[in-house]
Known about the structure:
Blueprint: H1 15-33, E1 36-37, H2 38-45, H3 49-61, E2 65-71, E3 79-84, E4 90-97, E5 100-107, E6 112-119, H4 126-140, E7 148-155, E8 158-159, E9 166-167, H5 180-188, E10 192-196, H6 197-208, E11 217-223, E12 225-232, E13 235-236, E14 251-252, E15 267-268, H7 269-272, H8 275-284, H9 292-299, H10 303-328, E16 332-336, H11 338-358, E17 365-367, H12 374-392, E18 396-397, E19 400-401
Parallel strand pairs: 4-7, 7-10, 11-16, 16-17
Antiparallel strand pairs: 1-3, 2-3, 4-5, 5-6, 8-9, 11-12, 12-13, 14-15, 18-19
Amino acid sequence: MLVARESGGARDGSPRLLREINDRAAIEAMLGRGALTRAELEAAIGLSKPATVSLLARLEKAGMVRRGELRGGNRGPAAQMWSVNGDLAHVAGVSLVPGEVDVVIADITGEVRVEHRGALPSGGDAPEGFAAVMVEAAGRAGLRTDQLAKVVVGAQGGVDPATGHLGFAPHLPGWEGFDVPGRLREVLGTDVVVDNDVNLVALVEMTTGRARDVRDFVLVWLGDGLGAAVVIDRVLHRGATGGAGEIDWIRVPDRARRDTGVDRSGARLGQLLSYRSINKLARAHGIRARNAVAAVRAARTGGAAGQAFLADLARRVATGVAGVVSVLDPELVLLTAEIAQVGGPELTDLVTAELHRLVVPRTPVEPAQCTDDAVRAGALQVALGLAREQVFGLPVTAVGVRSVPHDEQVEEGP
């Protein structure tokens, strides 16, 4: 860590600027690590004891940090713990799916205050129905919706940045043909961001999943609905109209060896990988299950018939992904959602082999690590990043809060 003093070091600057830089570094350290003692904060940001004492006093007076419990040690007096004041702001992350709203509300430190699910009506009153769920969730946290600093909503489809219209979302009746973020701002009385659900899952994979050390990758959602997220140089690529990654609508030939009656010359990829179509393909291989997910699970232990079905399914997936891989040449393709999860390494390996038969890049294919609530988690991550930028001045990137480089921590002058 490079430390400079105002009185003549590697960096010059006014006392106010140096204090602001150090304040941000201290806040970020406590947000990332939780409650810290003064000595631990010194070590984290590289300041002297007097400078850290002054910094904590300043932040406490401003209401940015607060004292916590005393930590006892084997030697000497107990140490005072310091943490960011979570009550400075609250945010909400929301997953919006047909018929349901899944909400999490957290304070600015990321501590979850409320988790709530509610029914979402379809039709023209869908935004008002959404608002009713949000009012109930906020109320459980002792808040009004207009007291939420940021609300980030993950939804199927993509939002056109020019109009705010939600496109590519036939499964969300009542949500097309108007400025969705603008309408939600009106009914909630606060700032609302709407993003594609698969994009938000990709953010989670970048921070806590398999793509933590990957710069360029494609995430493919194989659930009840098909989609993809494209990340280039660790930035989500949304496209000119918000439609980047909408591979659901690509028309591709069905390369399955068993004929299931689908137009083999050019079916819509979303049709080929719909739950109904996957289950139909399984039946063509003699595998009977109550639904597509159960069919894929049964195929893993279903002998030759199961392997043949998984191979056909892998051909469909690889055919759809091949064009994206050929154009982007990403470092990694990640498969996520229910079909990918139950298919496990067997399906992933088959998709890899088939993809490598179709394209020149030898892009590896792996299962994603994200959990069932990854859309909501990604929405919360973005909401926290935006709120922290607003409250603390911490810069935000596509994946949330940027870490302050070590060479930006500087020793304050007297």
